[in-house]
Amino acid sequence: MAGGHYDKSVYDELMKVMASLDSLKKETNQKISRLNNEISDLKKENKKLQKENELLKEDNTRLKNLLNHDSSNTSKPPSSDQKSSRPANNYNNRKKSEKKPGAQTGHKGTTLSRQKVQEKLASGKYLHEIETIGEVSERGYIVRYVIDLRVQPVIRELRIYQDADGKYPIPEGYRSEVIYGPTVRALAVDLYSEGVMSNDRIAAFLNDASEGCLKLSEGSVYGFCQKFSDLAKTEIEKQNEHLLNQPVVATDATTVSLNGKQGYIRNISDEEAVVYYGMEKKTKTALEEIPFFSSYTGTLLHDHETALYQYGTAHAECNVHILRYLKKNTEEAGNPWSKKLSDLLCKVNRERRKQKAEGKTCFPDEKIQKCEKQYRECLEEGKKENHSTKHKYAKKEEQTLLNRLEKYRENHLLFLKQFEVPFDNNMSERDLRKVKNRQKMAGGFRKEKGQKMYCRIMSIVETLKRRKMNLMSNIKQIFIGTPAIF
């Protein structure tokens, strides 16, 4: 009996242990399952964080490089470089010269000499007055010349007599009893364009210069400029005709504010003339509103505006922009191909300038073929190096640059085959610098009429400067009705 109870007791204990083990196993399995789920979730979260970390690293690298972007490696204007850490007066990457300050050997001086002043007196254009210092005697004297400007208001009284029919032949422009003369009008236009002054400041300046005699108003100044703009239409048509006959013209556009919205002013230029146009956008539709483009049959030089490829018969791309993009790629992607291509373009351009100075019009065929081969080799190297470019954004931008250089190879190298095609589009950028000055001073234009007036005035003024013609006298000629630009 005792043995039977013992066996049953052992059996019961065994069942309890087994039940406990089953419970523990179940609990352990649940914990393992829960931990596996947690591990799985942590893996997913870790993978997500790794991806975010990579993106943040890429973005951090991109932002660091953005801080180094300036006018030397992007299309940003030089004015934006002033926010960088460069020292003052070194915003355009110029290297310090070893030359001493002041006049340089070989440069033609502009200081007025006694002989030059005497030549001016002989021309009859200067009023000659003599003043004496000291007591006049036969002991002799020395001469000093003082060149000055006399501002004196003049009132011209025009007496218009009746003709045989009893009518008064009043000339055009003299309908009012009192008008301002061409000199006052020309000064106002000159100050508006060259002086980059607002209408109220122009009126104040001329009133002060005349000691309050002119009594000009802001509205009068605007009226002078608008009248000049209307009279300039014929001359601008002649400038357009001149540009249409040129084998190569340069064009570019810059942003301006028009009634609170972004607009554009475009220039069309060569070495002797420039014409400005206002535009709402840089699209093909906007370009069609400028008659010049649909009529032009030569080569257009521009900064990779694809809409312009619809016009002209050939296109040249600005290589200075490409040099900036190549420099940016060298800094960000770290691949040597872009530096090689940049050096190649600069070297060929130096050789081109020498050849052009000697009267050559293009490189020999073998030279052109050699340069084109080196150009293609640089691109092939770039494609291989692009595969190992570390940062995604730099890799993508590098690929875009390589595609552009390959697709528009003929346009970038056109300056090799035709020396009349400039290496860059700097002329257009200089032409538009005046527009940016106006934008900074006035903050843009309130109406399209004001923008159109500004474009016409600047077309005349900048063309006169191109041709080294006196601004004041020729502006007066347009007011009088006898212009002589073309």
Number of strands: 5
Spatial strand arrangement across the major sheet: 3-2-1-4-5
Report mean pLDDT, rounded to a whole number: 88
The total of helices stands at 17
**Radius of gyration, whole Å:** 38 Å
Please give the largest β-sheet.
5 strands, mixed
Q: Beta-strand level of the residues, as a percent range?
A: 5-15%
- What is the global morphology? elongated
Contiguous uncertain segments of 5+ residues: none
Could you estimate the helical fraction of the residues in percent? 40-55%
Cα separation of the termini: 140 Å
The SSE order reads: HHHHHHEEEHHEEHHHHHHHHH
Structural notes for this entry:
The chain is α/β, with parallel strands linked by helices. It is 54% helix and 7% strand. The chain contains 17 helices and five strands. The chain has a five-stranded mixed sheet with strand order 3-2-1-4-5. Strand 1 and strand 2 form a beta hairpin. Helix 5 crosses helix 16, helix 6 packs across helix 16 and helix 11 runs antiparallel to helix 12. The model has no long low-confidence stretch (mean pLDDT 88).
